[in-house]
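step 3/5: co-fold with NAP
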Amino acid sequence: MSQLSLPQLALLIDGEWRAPMSGRHFDTVNPASEEIIATVAEADRDDVDAAVQSAHRAFLSGVWSRRNGIERARVLWAVAARLRELESDIAVLESVDAGKPLAATRRQDIRAAVDCLEYFAGWADKLEGRTVPVREDALTYVSREPLGVVAAIVPWNFPLMNAVWKLAPALACGCSVVLKPAELTPLSALRLGEIFLECGLPRGVLNIVPGYGHITGQALIEHPLVSKISFTGSPGVGKHIMRTASERAIHVGLELGGKSPALIFADADLEAAARAVASGAFFNAGQVCSAATRVLVAREAHDRFVDSLTARMAKIRTGDPLAAGTSMGPVISRKQQDGILDAIEGAKKQGATLAYAGDCDSPRGFFVPPTLFTDVTPDMAIAQKEIFGPVLGVTAFDGDAQGVALANDSRYSLAASVWSQDIKRAHAAARAVRAGTVWVNTYGHTDTRLPWGGMGGESGVGRDLGRDALENYTEQKAVWVQL
Ligand code: NAP
Ligand code: MG
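step 4/5: write tokens
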């Protein structure tokens, strides 16, 4: 195994690494080996208060919020460059903490983080306003101002990337941030904190408070000096955050869950669809909010598609994330593993056919085999509930209208894919499917330049990424100057 170099394991508050006032620490575990990697400081309510106060002071001082955009951009560029330099180290850190195959961490997680930092660095000096002619005797203009202190709360499936999706636009806009990484995966966020300090981010502009959701996260979302909560995680916690934020009527962005359909028509390139579904459903052991877990196939193509898919699933190599050739690692925790295994048992009980189950007989680690069910009906839990593991179900449909209706029979609305070689049919389906992102004849791409988010409900509200993310972290101000 490559050398693992640990980051600071303290709290980042007011530009320095502090021991927690809580006096408490928690372990972070390698999900492939079940071994403790490190013991990390836990922030309690007092620690969170110190972090938010520091962020607020920094914001009011103008040291970052009123700094020239080009100077803010330079810090973000420097952080991106440093991430590139440290790519190998950070990839190992992230892979060990989150159980991700190393090659995928490098290819996906780190690159997406670098790309996001560079993209929003480019916006930092382009947050222009506009003049609006209103009356002869007045100059009226609209400017954009940073919102204030942003609470960024992120999950464990893409720890670094999700943190950067919040931090990069918030910092580009001049906000201060308090980041709470998931308690299961705090290490890459702490490394990122070191890099920001090294690259000259002024003290207090970024604070990092690892800890548990119900303690650290709860203190953060209730804090009166927070102006915006930017959250990625489960629908239950997301709705709780929205209720809490409603007490103070502050801004909230929620990137929540998914149960994304792959709608495959009979005229689709079935090989391409099987390849994409196999990678879309089992990438990151299925712990992806946009995982392709509801496969809807035209009945006449069903058997051919399932054959192609199982052939591809047989090639998935489950094992140690750091070993060359591993394509799927463990899931994040024992709890997650138990929940997924329960869902598999539940699908069998409800009458779905177990069409394929891979093998993974590791004596240790939270492994779940890639699992495929067929004969899934829309009322089954496996068709409706997000499992967040390497499990997918296939349902046959008759006719385009039924396929689209099945695709939309969900409380989720994050992403979907449609597969057809007929351009009219593909566009019609892309329009009809209710999802924040629709892929046509492909699966799973996200890009910093494109908005990402759900169409409400269990998938959340608001958009990360793209120029729209700038709206998340700025307010408009109308100024009326009497002439
Ligand atoms: P989660 O339990 O909701 O946790 C997400 C974050 O919220 C963690 O940092 C968690 O802290 C924190 N948290 C928990 N309770 C809190 C509270 N009362 N107040 C403030 N923060 C609190 O979700 P998860 O199980 O880690 O992640 C899986 C879910 O995230 C899935 O549903 C998935 O679809 C969704 N997800 C969505 C996207 C997207 O882009 N839409 C991306 C990734 C994941 P602790 O971890 O310390 O408990
Ligand atoms: Mg861990």
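step 5/5: annotate
The mean pLDDT is 97.
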